[in-house]
Amino acid sequence: MDTPWPSSPFQPGDLVASRYRITGLLGRGANGLTYEAQPLTASEAPSPVALKALSFKAMSNWKSLELFEREAAALRTLSHPAVPRYIDFFDVDVKGDQVFVLVQRKAPGKALQEWLNEGRRFTTEQVAATFRQLLEVLDYLASLNPPVLHRDVKPSNVILDIDGKEPRLSLVDFGGVNAGMRSGTLGSTMVGTFGYMAPEQYGGGGDVRSDLYAAAATVLYMFTGQPPASLPQKRLKMDIESVIPEREQLKLGNIYTVVQKLLEPAPEDRYDSPRAALDALLATHDSQEGGDLRDSGVAGELLALGSSLASEDAASLSRAFRAIGTPQDVGGGPLELLTGWAGRRIRKRKPAGTKVTVDRDRANRLLKITVPPDGISGEVLSKGAFTVAWTGFTAFWTVGVLTGGAPLVFSLFSIPFWAAGVRMAKSTLEQITGLTTLVISFGGGKKEVFYFGLASKRAFGRQDFVEGDARDLDQAMINTEMYVNGEPVTQLVLQEGTRRYIMGRGLQVVEQEWLRDEINDFLQPRRRW
Q1: Going by C-beta distance under 8 Å and a sequence separation of 6 or more, which residues neighbour residue 422?
Q2: Omega of the bond leading into 46 within 30 degrees of 0 (cis)
Q3: Is 15-105 a CATH 3.30.200.20 domain?
Q4: Per-domain residue ranges for the chain?
Q5: 52 among annotated binding-site residues
Q6: How many percent of the chain have pLDDT more than 90?
Q7: Where are the transmembrane segments (predicted)?
Q8: Which residues contact residue 399 at a Cβ distance below 8 angstroms, ignoring those fewer than 6 apart?
Q9: Mean pLDDT of 458-483
């Protein structure tokens, strides 16, 4: 008589260990079959359980049993809402075969792989909630001592219950678990699934960052509907930019940014821990609908400066900029509204020796330029000495004209020289103490905020702050302000329609040219606005 489940040690209706009645087959894995069963004991009924079975006869080597026992031992110590509770582990004799059995609570819902096979499409909010919960459970596993590595995170091992307001996630099948593996350690067995395995796992190695890679690949499948193994590659990395349009990248926001970083082939280029990845994800997707936004970081600084942004827009922009880095304790007042962010990769090679920083997010929606003060340096001292000499000579000439009996009109010829001296003095002081920050957002933030702000600390403590719509920006250019001894004194100018904003006084020409090219390169794709 044919059995409904060939090569299965159990059949529908079978009673296992006199405690569990088999009611269905949940799945087949490399390390056994998983059944749905109904407990018969009063303490466990009526909640169904997942019963995972490993047949001794079906084992190809002793490693299978070792991994199965390791899974049971690890699950016995775990306690997290997203990990179905361990119930029992035992072995039974079935028709001349010894079958090892692991029993857990059955996770509600269906495997993400099943949802995807059925053509299910998920909203951005559902993807964000799933990603958050997956990182939370990985953070819990990594926090244990020693840490627990799942090593086979993939859609078939992520169970989703989508009946509620947001998906409820469970992580199952710890058959590849390895507790206590040190970073860079090579194992004796390669564990994982093609398309979700981090490159370092192919050599039997890996650490917590390997699970993060797999988590990102799982979420990528969730919002593209394409298995990661089918995606094109560029420089040994999944080329997700070629399959996800820019509009969709903007819609996904920080989900896209975090996934892209976690899919870096080199582990050191990913986030160091699930907590770091989770913080980066929540930086954009956390809700700040209530409360006083004047206490919410960058949003509070913008509002303190008298920004015209609505409170919710300022908060959205604040959260988007947290994706670039982590706030530092820079102190000071409102001038430092956008400073203190740990930068991301600089897009172009910057001039050697410059202190200026240029930061962009990977979706090319946010740009931040910081021009810090130089402080006292040999160059500044030389420039200051020249300024003093210039001003002294101008004063001597002016006094000589006024006291020498020459017509008063001759003294007017000194006005351009006085103006040049004042400009050089201001430039020198700004080079010593000035601080300039430019931020441009093209749709950055959950609310698609189009914004630019330029904050400058000038000489004698004066502060300037201008802002507007980023879509009104035209270009950056270098203008010659004046000539001193035949040498041009240049400045970087940001053009907004008929208005012009000066930044970068005191910078060398090579720095100004670099910043001009960076700004124009960033603005170029946006000219369609």
Answers
A1: none
A2: yes
A3: yes
A4: 15-105, 110-285, 293-373+434-526, 378-431
A5: yes
A6: 36
A7: 395-419
A8: none
A9: 79
Q: What is the DSSP string of 334-392?
A: GGGTT--BPP---SSPPPTT---EEEE-TTS-EEEEEE----S-HHHHHHHHHHHHHHH
The residue with tokens 């507790």 is 179
For 30-48, b/e burial (b = at least 16 CB within 10 A) is ebbbbbbbbbeeeebeeeb
What pLDDT score does 353 carry?
81
Q: What is the band of 274 on the pLDDT scale with cuts at 50, 70, 90?
A: very high
CATH no. for 110-285: 1.10.510.10
195: Cβ contacts below 8 Å, ≥ 6 apart: 154, 217, 227, 228, 229
pLDDT in tens, 293-317: 333 344 555 555 556 676 567 666 7
Strands (E), 203-299: 233-234, 237-238
Q: What is the CA radius of gyration of the chain?
A: 32
Q: CA-CA distance, 374 to 355, in Å (whole number)?
A: 8
Length of the chain counted residue by residue: 529
Q: Which of 86, 92, 219, 236 is nearest to 154 (CA)?
A: 219
Of residues 427, 493, 418, the one with CA closest to residue 458 = 427
